[in-house]
Amino acid sequence: MAAAKLSEFGVNHVAKGIGRLSKEVIESGAGSYVKMMSGKRFLDFTSGIGVTNLGHCHPAVTKAAQAQVGTIVHGQVNIAFQKSYLELVEAMLPLMPHKSLDTFFFWNSGAEAVEAAVKLARHATKKQNIIVMQGSYHGRTFGTMAMTRSKTIYGLGYSPLMPGVFSVPFPYCSQCSVAKASDGKHNFENCCMDPITQLELLLQRETAPQDTAALFIEPVLGEGGYVPPPKEYMARLREICDKNKILLVCDEVQCGYGRTGKMFAVEHWGVRPDILIMAKGIANGFPLSAIASSKELMDTQPPGTMGGTYAGNAVSCAAGVAVAKAFKDESILDNVNARGAELRQTLQAAKDDPKTSKCAPGKGYASKIQAKCMEKGMLTLTTSIYDTLRFIPPLNITKEDMAEGCRILKEAIEEVAEGAQSDVKQSHTKTD
C-alpha cells in the first residue's frame, strides 16, 4: 500500500509534457517481460523503444555494469582516458559497416549524437545547411527538433527553431502519390525515384551544394513508419553526396545494432556513410550514444570543441562492451533473422486473410490493435502520422516468446476486424 501511495503521489508531480502508453508503474524486467507494481506481467514488444535490445537485465551486461560500478563510475573524458571507453572503441571497430569508420566520440543520448554529427559536419565542411528526410526523427533537443519531421507535436510551440535545415521526401512507396496514380507501374519493387528528383531540385532551388554540409537519413525510417527505402535509393544518395561534396550521415539510433538482421541497416545496401550515428541498443539501457567517422574527418576538430560531463560514462561503456560481446557469443543476428521471419509470416497471414485484411490503415485500427494487445498482456507501439503498428521485441527473444507474441497479435487483429465489421453492419442498418 505504501508503495502504491508513493507512486500515486509521484504521478502528480511528473511533467505533463511526457506522453506514455500506460499509467502502469514498471517494477522490474527480465528478458522479454516486464512486471508492473499492479502485479500484471507484460510481454514487451517495445524494448524501451528499441533500447533493451538484449532483453531486460541481460545477465552479462548486468554483471559488467556491476563490476564497473565497483571500480570507477565516472572518470570524465576531458580529464583522462577511461579504460572502459577505450575497450568499447576496440569492441566497436570490427562491427562498423565500413573500415573508414575508425574514430569514435561517445555521448549520452541519440539526440546528442545527432547534434555531435551536425557539429562535425559543419566544422569539417565549413558549410552550414543540412538536409533531412520528411518523416524523420532525430530527437527533441532544440537543435534536433528542427531536424525531426515525423510529427509536428515534437516541435509544436518552440519556434523559431535552428535555421539552415531543409527537407526532402523519403521514398515511402505505399504512401507515394506517384505510385498511387501509376496503375501499378510504380511500387516498392519498381520505385519511380521521385524523391531523388526532389533532392536534385532542392539543391538547385533552396540550398546550393556550396552551402550544404550534410544529408541526414535513417536508413530505415523510424518514427515516420518503419519504412525501408527501395533498392538503389541509398546508392543514388551516395552518388549525389559525392558529386556535390556533401557528407552522408546515417542515423542508426533506432535501426542499427542488429534491428534489421544486420549489425547496421546501411549494410543491406552496401553504402558507406561519412558519419554513423548510434545510440539506444548499444548499451542495453545505460545512457550511451556515439558517432563514428574517419580519423581524417574527426581530426578536423581541435581539442576542446567536443566533450560533455557524462559523455562516454564508464559504466555505460562497460555495458556497451558486454553488449558487443553478447552479439557474437549468443549469435544474436541469427536469432533476429529467424524470429523476424516468424513475425513477418504472422503479419503476412493477417494481410492475406479476407477478414482481417479489412483493418486497412487510416481508420485508427493500429491504436485499437495496440489496446487489444495490452489487454492480452503484450506491450507494443504505434508510430507515424499514418495508421502504423511497430514491433520492437528484444533481439534475443526466444522462439516460444515470439510464438506467444504472434498469437496475441493475431487474436487482437481478428477481434478488431470483427468489431469493424459489426460497426459496418450497424451503420448499414441505421441507413436502411
TrEMBL record:
Keywords associated with the record: Aminotransferase, Pyridoxal phosphate, Transferase
Keyword match Transferase: yes
A GO term for molecular function: pyridoxal phosphate binding
Alphabetical list of Gene3D superfamilies matching this protein: Aspartate Aminotransferase, domain 1 (3.90.1150.10), Type I PLP-dependent aspartate aminotransferase-like (Major domain) (3.40.640.10)
Pfam families cross-referenced by the UniProt entry: Aminotran_3 (PF00202)
Cofactor field: pyridoxal 5'-phosphate
Family (UniProt): Belongs to the class-III pyridoxal-phosphate-dependent aminotransferase family.
Record's protein name: 5-aminovalerate aminotransferase DavT
Species assigned in the record: Cyphellophora attinorum
